[in-house]
Amino acid sequence: MSHELRTPLNAIIGFSEMLIGGHVGALPPKQREYVDSVRESGAHLLTVINDILDLAKIEAGRFELRRLEPVHPADLARGCAELLRENARARSVELSVDPQPMLPPLEADAARVRQILFNLLDNAIKFSPINGKVGLTIRSVGDGMVEFVVADNGPGMSKNEARKALQPFGQVEEGLTRSHNGTGLGLPLALRLAEIHGGTLRIDSEKGYGTCVIVRLPQASTREPAPDTFEAAAA
C-alpha cells in the first residue's frame, strides 16, 4: 500500500510544483490557481495516507521508533509552531509557545514528537474561532516527565465526544468536522505515539469552554537541563 499509494501521489505533487515554478513556461493566473489546488489536494491526501499507514502499523504491533535520543522540547515546540504560523494568521488566530526555562531534554524520536505536536496544534488552530487563541505550554513535572499542554478557546467537547475523538476516524460534531476537512486521525495517532514513547495523552474539555490536550513524555535519563537554543522567527 505504501508504494502503490505514495508513488503516484509524489508524481502528482512533484509535477504540480514544477508547473507552478514555471519549469515549462509561465501559467495564466487561472491555470496556476487550478494547478495549485491539485498540489494542495495531493499534499493533504499524502498526509492522510501516511497517518492511516502509521496507525495500521501501530495496531498490528509493527511500528518502531526510529531513534531515541535527547530532544530539546522547547526547540521542537517552537519549530512546530513556526510551521503552522501561516495557518494561524489565515484564521486570525493568536498562536503562542510558553516553555518553562531550562527544560530537561526528552528521551524521544524527534520526528514522532514533532508529529504529535503538529497534529495537536493543527487541530487547535483549525477548530478555534476567528480571532481565537491557541497556546502551547511546556513544563517539567515531578515524576520525570515533560508536559505539553495545547489549549484553545474553541467550541469544546463533552466527555463522550472527547472519548470518541481519541478513536480512529471518530467524528465529533460531524458538520463542524467536515467543514474543517477533519479525518479523525490526528488525536488517535498522537495518543498512540505518546504511549509508544512511554507517555500519556489526555483531553480536558467542556462544551463552550475550549479544549486542553495534555501530553506527558519521559525525560532523558541524563535529566540534565537543555539550553533553549531556538530563536523564534519574527511573527
Walk me through the structure.
It is built from 8 helices and 7 strands. By secondary structure, the chain is α+β, with helices and mostly antiparallel strands. The chain folds into 2 domains: about 1-60; about 70-220, Heat Shock Protein 90 (2-Layer Sandwich), CATH 3.30.565.10. The strands form 2 sheets. A 5-stranded mixed beta sheet has the order 2-4-5-7-6. It has a two-stranded antiparallel sheet with strand order 1-3. The longest helix has about 30 residues, at about 30-60. Mean pLDDT is about 85; it is low at about 175-180 and about 220-235.
Secondary structure: elements and pairs:
Blueprint (H helix, E strand, L loop, with lengths): L1 H19 L8 H31 L9 E3 L1 H11 L1 H6 L3 E6 L6 E3 L1 H17 L6 E9 L3 E8 L6 H7 L8 H6 L6 H11 L3 E6 L5 E8 L17
Parallel strand pairs: 2-4
Antiparallel strand pairs: 1-3, 4-5, 5-7, 6-7
Helix pairs in contact: 1-2, 2-8, 3-5, 5-8
Highlighted features:
single chain; disordered C terminus; two-stranded antiparallel sheet; five-stranded mixed beta sheet; 2 domains; 235 residues; globular; 8 helices; Heat Shock Protein 90; alpha+beta
Brief rundown of the structure:
This protein is 46% helix and 18% strand.
